[in-house]
Amino acid sequence: MPQKPAIFLDRDNTLIHDDGYIFEIEKFAWITGAVAALRRFHQAGLPVFIVTNQGGIGRGIFTESDMHNFNHHLIDAAEKAGGGITDIAFCPHHPLSPDPVMAAACRCRKPEPGLLFDLAQKWQIDLGASVMIGDRDSDVEAGKRADMAAYLFDRGDLDQLAKQVMDRHFTAKTDGSK
Question: How far apart are the first and last CA of the chain?
Answer without folding.
Answer: 25
